[in-house]
Amino acid sequence: MRELMRPFKTLVNMKSGQLNPCRHVIERRLSDMKGMYLDAQAYSRLLNQGDKLIYKVYEVDVAQEAGQLIYCTTIIYPGKVGNEYFMTKGHFHLKEDTAEIYFCLQGEGHLLMQARDGQVSFLQMKSGTIAYVSPYWGHRTMNTGDKEFIFLAVFPGDAGHNYRAVEDRGFAKILVEEGGSPQLKRNPKYVAEPE
Ligand code: PAN
Ligand code: ZN
After folding, report:
1. Hey, which end of the chain has fewer CB within 10 Å, N or C?
2. What is the Å distance from ligand 2's center to 139 Cα?
3. Confidence of residue 77 (pLDDT cuts 50, 70, 90)
4. CB atoms within 10 A of CB 66
5. Which positions ≥6 away from 141 have C-beta within 8 Å?
6. Predicted local distance difference test score (pLDDT) of residue 194
7. Is the domain defined by 11-186 classed in CATH 2.60.120.10?
8. Domain locations in the chain?
9. How many angstroms separate the most distant Cα atoms in the chain?
10. Would you list the DSSP string of 10-68?
11. What is the pLDDT of residues 24-58, one digit of tens each?
């Protein structure tokens, strides 16, 4: 019989989002987000000023296999590229029939979700908000506040991440600041899925 995995706990710093212990920390910088923002000139201008840290992920050390639950914290820093808010790359799960829970710990943000048939869903998040990302929905988060936006995510161990679909097609909507507040706009660069 396979050896039992022992229960364990971790500690999340509710202010900084740091998870302890964690398996690894992923850092995504502006240079990792090439082609993801609509305003290419604003992107180049900002990159010339330095390769800013856009977000960070602390991930627990749990096997990536069915039956497990993986959890991690994401910290998105405040800022914009042109008028588009700092955001995560966004992805579908490789195993698309897997859901995910996002629990906001700090700050303010938005969760943009998109199904393969073109449906879009959009949820505002603040400290205490629990968002349910249903199976089959691609998801991306944006920081729309002026301090760090921090959330905990929990997803099945065998979910996996598919970034390719978002890199190739983008999301149907982008979130920009207009008149001092976030506005959801059509993304003219979006390439719809074939029927
Ligand atoms: C989240 C995300 C995390 C970073 O834990 O992986 O917020 O976003 P990207 O993976 O799109 O860079 C999650 O949805 N996990 O499945
Ligand atoms: Zn996910």
Report:
1. N
2. 7
3. very high
4. 11
5. 74, 76, 87, 88, 90, 102, 109, 110, 111, 112, 125, 149, 151
6. 84
7. yes
8. 11-186
9. 62
10. -EE-TTT--EES-SEEEEEEGGGGTT-SS-HHHHHHHHHT---EEEEEEE----SSTT-
11. 999 999 999 999 999 999 999 999 999 999 999 99
Residue nearest to atom 3 of ligand 1 (CA): 74
Q: Is 167 helix (H, G, I), strand (E, B) or coil?
A: helix
Amino acid code (one letter) for 9 = K
Q: Give the closest residue (by CA) to ligand 1 atom 7.
A: 74
pLDDT digits (tens, 9 = 90+) for 50-72: 999 999 999 999 999 999 999 99
Neighbours of 93 (CB within 10 A): 22
If you count them, how many residues does the chain have? 195
Neighbours of ion ligand 2 (CB under 5 A): 100
Q: Kindly tell me the number of DSSP H helices and DSSP E strands found in the chain.
A: 2, 15
137 alpha carbon, closest ligand: 2
Tokens 């390719």, residue located: 164
- 90 CA distance to ligand 1 middle (Å): 7
* pLDDT, tens digit, 9 for 90 and up, residues 112-139: 999 999 899 999 999 999 999 999 999 9
Answer yes or no: is pLDDT of 1 > 90: no
